[in-house]
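Run log // design_07
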C-alpha cells in the first residue's frame, strides 16, 4: 500500500475539516493518506462537525499501512496545549503546522511516502512560531535542500496550468528580478518538470509580457525587448515557446487553451485569472523538488473555520494530482 503524507495545516483554519472530508471521498483509492500533525486537533473537528471518520493514531508508516481500509491514520508530531480555537492566530497552531510539514517532508525523502499534500497554513501564525519563510514553498525547499522551486497552479477540470516567474515579491521588486534572473534556465527547468511530473512529451509554453500590452514595442517599458524576446528566441531552438503575450488579451481570448502552461511574470498577473477560472478546483504544485508536493489553491479561511462550510474540492484534487505525479515520476524512472 502506497502512502501519501497529508500535513494538517493550521489547526485553527479549515485544514482539518477538508482533510476529513477529502478522506471520505477518496478512501477507496489506490494510495492511503497518512496525516501528520495532531490527532487531538483532527479528532476535535471530527466530533465538532459530526463527520464520523474513523481515526487511528499511529507511530510509524508501517503501522499506518497495516490498518484496514476506511481508517484514517494520524501520526502526531506535536499536540496543542489546548483544544483548537477556530478562526484565531496562535503560535501553538503555527508550531504544529511546521512540525507536520517537516515530518511529511522527512517521510517523502526517506521513501516512506510517495508524495505530500499540504493543508493551508497561516503566515502570521508560523511567523509567531519562529519561522522566517513567507509560506510553504520556501520552507519545504529548505528542508529538501533545494534551490529555487517553481510554483505552478493546475486546474484538473480545464487542464489550465499557470507558472510564476516570481512568487511572493513586492510589485516594485518584480522588474529588477526579471532583469536579473536567468530566464533561459528557468524555462528549461519548467520544461523538464512538465515532462517529468505531467508526462507531457513536448510541452508548449506561453510566456506573458511584464508590461501592459507587452510594452507595445517598447512604448511602456523595455523588459520585453531587452530580456524576454532574446530569451524566447534562444529557447525556441529546442523548446516550443511563444510570446511575450499581453496578459489581458491572452486570457480574454482564451489563448491559454493552445498551450500546456502559461508563464506569468508575477503573482497577480497569473493568479488573478487562474482563480477566476478555477477557484474551487485549482491545485498548487511545487516543481523542482526531489519530492512531490501539492496543496489546495486557497488559504486557511478563518472566517468559516469550524462551521462545516469548507469545501474539500481543491484539497481532494490536490491529493489526486499528487498521486498522479508520483506515478508519472515512477514510470519515468522505470522507463526513461
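design_07 sequence
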Amino acid at each position: 500500500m502506497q502512502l501519501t503524507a497529508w500535513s494538517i495545516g493550521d489547526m485553527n483554519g479549515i485544514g482539518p475539516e477538508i482533510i476529513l472530508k477529502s478522506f471520505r471521498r477518496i478512501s477507496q483509492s489506490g494510495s492511503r493518506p497518512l496525516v501528520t500533525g495532531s490527532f487531538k486537533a483532527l479528532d476535535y473537528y471530527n466530533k465538532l462537525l459530526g463527520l464520523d471518520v474513523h481515526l487511528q493514531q499511529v507511530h510509524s508508516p508501517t503501522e499506518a499501512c497495516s490498518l484496514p481500509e476506511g481508517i484514517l491514520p494520524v501520526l502526531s508530531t506535536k499536540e496543542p496545549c489546548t483544544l483548537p480555537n477556530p478562526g484565531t492566530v496562535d503560535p501553538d497552531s503555527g508550531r504544529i503546522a511546521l512540525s507536520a510539514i517537516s515530518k511529511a517532508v522527512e517521510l517523502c525523502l526517506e521513501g516512506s511516502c510517495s508524495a505530500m499534500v499540504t493543508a493551508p497554513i497561516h503566515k502570521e501564525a508560523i511567523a509567531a512560531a519562529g519561522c522566517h519563510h513567507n509560506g510553504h514553498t520556501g520552507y519545504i525547499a529548505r528542508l529538501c535542500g533545494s534551490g529555487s522551486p517553481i510554483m505552478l497552479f493546475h486546474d484538473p477540470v480545464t487542464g489550465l496550468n499557470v507558472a510564476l516567474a516570481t512568487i511572493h515579491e513586492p510589485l516594485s521588486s518584480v522588474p529588477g528580478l526579471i532583469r536579473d534572473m536567468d530566464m533561459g534556465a528557468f524555462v528549461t527547468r519548467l520544461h523538464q518538470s512538465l515532462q517529468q511530473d505531467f508526462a507531457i512529451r513536448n510541452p508548449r509554453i506561453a510566456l506573458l509580457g511584464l508590461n501592459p500590452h507587452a510594452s507595445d514595442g517598447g512604448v511602456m517599458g523595455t523588459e520585453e525587448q531587452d530580456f524576454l524576446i532574446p530569451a524566447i528566441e534562444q529557447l525556441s531552438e529546442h523548446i516550443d515557446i511563444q510570446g511575450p503575450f499581453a496578459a489581458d488579451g491572452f486570457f480574454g481570448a482564451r489563448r491559454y487553451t493552445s498551450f500546456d502552461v502559461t508563464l506569468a511574470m508575477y503573482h497577480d498577473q497569473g493568479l488573478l485569472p487562474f482563480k477566476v477560472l478555477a477557484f474551487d478546483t485549482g491545485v498548487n504544485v511545487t516543481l523542482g523538488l526531489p519530492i512531490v508536493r501539492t496543496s489546495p489553491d486557497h488559504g486557511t479561511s478563518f472566517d468559516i473555520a469550524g462551521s462545516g462550510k469548507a469545501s474539500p474540492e481543491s484539497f481532494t484534487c490536490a491529493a489526486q494530482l499528487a498521486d498522479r505525479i508520483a506515478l508519472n515520476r515512477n514510470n519515468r524512472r522505470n522507463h526513461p
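The longest helix spans residues 313-334.
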